[in-house]
Write a structure and sequence with these properties.
By secondary structure, the protein is an alpha/beta fold. The protein folds into 2 domains: about 1-205, YjeF N-terminal domain (Rossmann fold, 3-Layer(aba) Sandwich); about 210-465, Ribokinase (UDP-N-acetylmuramoyl-L-alanine:D-glutamate ligase, 3-Layer(aba) Sandwich), CATH 3.40.1190. Helices cover about 40% and strands about 15% of the residues. It has helices at about 5-20, 25-40, 60-70, 90-95, 130-135, 180-185, 240-250, 265-270, 300-310, 320-330, 330-340, 350-355, 365-375, 410-425, 430-445, 455-465; strands spanning about 1-5, 50-55, 75-80, 100, 110-115, 140-145, 165-170, 175, 190-195, 205-210, 230-235, 260, 275-280, 290-295, 315-320, 345, 380, 385-390, 395. The strands form 2 sheets. It has a 12-stranded mixed β-sheet, sandwiched between helices. A 7-stranded parallel β-sheet has the order 4-3-2-5-6-7-9, with helices on one face. β18 (about 385-390) and β19 (about 395) form a beta hairpin. α2 (about 25-40) packs across α3 and α7 packs parallel to α14 (about 410-425). The longest helix has 20 residues, at about 430-445.
């Protein structure tokens, strides 16, 4: 798994490494890495033109030293200073290698811009002197040093003008602001340069799953349909039968041996999925290892009764969509679930979150953690970078978000898959993070064939899950 770190954690680790190395060692490593990434983006060096945007901190120094390395490889390097206190040694190295310090009006159109305006020590918005440089970089190819200037390094918020990078070279560890909120879009592709910090970063509390971490449980030789796990689904209504089909369709795929459906769309479910076990209500469903409840449930009295019946179960429960709206109106149900201390996963989008917990704000990780702490549940806060937080504050940031998921019924598919993974034996945080990862990849696969509707996600999930079976 990929660890994600705050600026304080990165700085503390850097401090521990710096005392054990000769002065300038980390900067030299960073400069070589930046120059190598720049050359890779350019595709050539001799005769290429690179512009450095140089601030007064360590990122500006890294950019100058990288520019000196590129100049020695035959690149025509110009630098524009955004501060009166740029690194003098780095500037001297750049000039010795043939690079030049210029004013913005004298800049020749570059093939690539290296953004070294500000680093993790600065919080946006940017100062006035930098705004003209940000505007100049708009719609040009940019390689950002550590993080694009103008992004909050701890939240990904972009409260003003900011650099949009094609690629970001980040040093020592992944910063949270590169992976959540608007920062994820601004950062482009991310390359991590190992500066030797890994042994000093501690155990970590926030992670991203990588492909090798995503595993859907598979049956063994001695398994039967019950030992693999059974998931129950309460979704859909006379008004929204499609939610039952989407949720149940995905629940079939997450490693379980059987799905029990207890809702108002029994005829539609058994018509499309004859393998699903349909029952009259939750009480008659028989044993399950997890429930998913809420998609398309509606708001009538019988929907409240169905939700309450599911929440009385001692097994893990995923609550989505109308289930969340009902919890906002009947908070006693959530309070009773908290007292019961049974595993629970809440899957709100921003508006559902606000009804339950108040404003999300710019810091999505803190919002998810706050909700998890208040509710005692694992909270999956949906978004382009979906965040999962457990009651203990540990969590995940999903790397596979796709704008194609902004379509009706997409969340129904995700909720069914989470419930299935829970019933198959994954713990709540890992089940939610795994489902979000697979859901995002399914959207990408479905989008390759044209516009995406949620029924395509169910079909695409099967192929994506096949790639994670072992």
């Amino acid at each position: 798994m990929r660890g994600i770190w705050t600026t304080d954690e990165i700085r503390e680790a850097e401090g521990q490494v710096l005392v054990s190395l000769p002065p300038g060692t980390l900067m030299a490593r960073a400069a070589r890495a930046i120059a190598t990434e720049a050359a890779g983006l350019l595709g050539f060096t001799y005769g290429a033109r690179v512009l450095l945007l140089v601030g007064g901190g360590d990122n500006g120094a890294d950019a100058l030293w990288a520019g000196a390395e590129l100049a020695r490889r035959g690149v025509a390097v110009q630098a524009v200073a955004a501060s009166d206190r740029i690194d003098s040694a780095g500037l001297a190295a750049l000039q010795r290698a043939g690079g030049r310090l210029v004013e913005l009006p004298a800049v020749r159109p570059p093939d690539l811009i290296i953004d070294g305006l500000v680093g993790i020590g600065a919080t946006p918005p940017l100062r006035d002197r930098m705004l003209a440089l940000v505007e100049y970089a708009r719609d040009r190819r940019v390689l950002a040093v550590d993080l694009p200037s103008g992004i909050d390094p701890n939240t990904g918020a972009v409260p003003g003008p900011a650099i949009k990078a094609e690629r970001t070279v980040t040093m020592g560890g992944y910063k949270l602001g590169l992976l959540v909120g608007a920062g994820r879009v601004q950062a482009g592709e991310i390359s991590l340069i190992d500066l030797g910090l890994a042994d000093h970063l501690g155990p970590g509390r926030l992670w991203q799953l990588e492909p090798a971490d995503v595993v859907v449980p598979q049956p063994g030789p001695s398994d039967d349909k019950y030992t693999r796990g059974v998931v129950g689904v309460v979704a859909g209504s006379a008004q929204y039968p499609g939610a039952a089909l989407l949720c149940t369709g995905a629940a079939r795929l997450g490693g379980v041996g059987a799905v029990r459906y207890a809702g108002q769309a029994k005829d539609e479910v058994v018509r499309d999925y004859p393998e699903v076990l349909v029952t009259e209500d939750v009480a008659a469903a028989g044993p399950v290892q997890a429930w998913t409840v809420g998609p398309g449930l509606g708001s009538a009295d019988d929907a409240v009764s169905e939700l309450a019946a599911v929440l009385r179960a001692e097994v893990p429960v995923v609550i989505d969509a109308d289930g969340l709206n009902l919890l906002a109106e009947h908070r006693e149900l959530l309070e009773q679930r908290v007292e019961q201390a049974a595993p629970t996963v809440l899957t709100p989008h921003d508006r559902e979150y606000e009804r339950l917990f108040g404003a999300v704000g710019e810091d999505r990780v803190s919002a998810a953690r706050r909700a998890a702490g208040e509710s005692g549940a694992t909270v999956l806060l949906k978004g382009y970078a979906t965040v999962v937080a457990g009651p203990d504050g540990t969590g995940y940031v999903n790397p596979t978000g796709d704008p194609a998921l902004a379509t009706a019924g997409s969340g129904d598919v995700l909720a069914g898959l989470i419930g299935s993974l829970l019933a198959a034996g994954l713990e709540p945080g890992r089940a939610a993070a795994t489902a979000a990862y697979l859901h995002g990849r399914a959207a990408g696969r479905a989008r390759a064939g044209g516009p995406v509707v949620s029924g395509m996600l169910v079909a695409a999930l099967r192929a994506v899950i096949a790639e994670h079976q072992r």
